[in-house]
From TrEMBL:
Part of the 50S ribosomal subunit. One of its GO terms (molecular function) is structural constituent of ribosome. GO terms for biological process: translation. This is Large ribosomal subunit protein bL31B. The keyword Mitochondrion does not apply. Belongs to the bacterial ribosomal protein bL31 family. Type B subfamily. It comes from Mangrovibacter phragmitis. GO terms for cellular component: ribonucleoprotein complex; ribosome. HAMAP family: Ribosomal_bL31_2. Keywords: Ribonucleoprotein, Ribosomal protein. The lineage of its organism: Bacteria, Pseudomonadati, Pseudomonadota, Gammaproteobacteria, Enterobacterales. InterPro entries: Ribosomal_bL28/bL31-like_sf, Ribosomal_bL31, Ribosomal_bL31_B, Ribosomal_bL31_sf.
Length: 87
């Protein structure tokens, strides 16, 4: 490999600030900040959302019943979109 061509790949600590969760993962992201964890110093990056805080991964998302929404739509607008009524 040519020197200076590829970014440096190393272990980086990502900190999810909303859940106060730290994730160590290999990355090439550039950062000037560092943090010490378990006696080792790692590059440090903060993130707003990760799998520890995102509603989809935590199971705390709101779910909407499609049946209720569809039924409400058909009740309000079904007479305009019903192909059997058009002749």
């Amino acid at each position: 490999m040519k020197p200076g061509l590829h970014p440096q790949y190393r272990t980086v600590v990502f900190h999810d600030t909303s859940a106060n969760h730290y994730i160590k993962v290999g990355s090439t992201i550039a950062t000037d900040r560092e943090i010490e964890i378990d006696g080792m110093t790692y590059p440090y990056v903060t993130v707003d959302v990760s799998s520890a805080s995102h509603p989809y991964y935590t199971g705390k998302q709101k779910t909407f019943t499609n049946e209720g929404s569809a039924a409400r739509f058909n009740q309000r607008f079904g007479r305009f979109f019903n192909p059997k009524d058009k002749q």
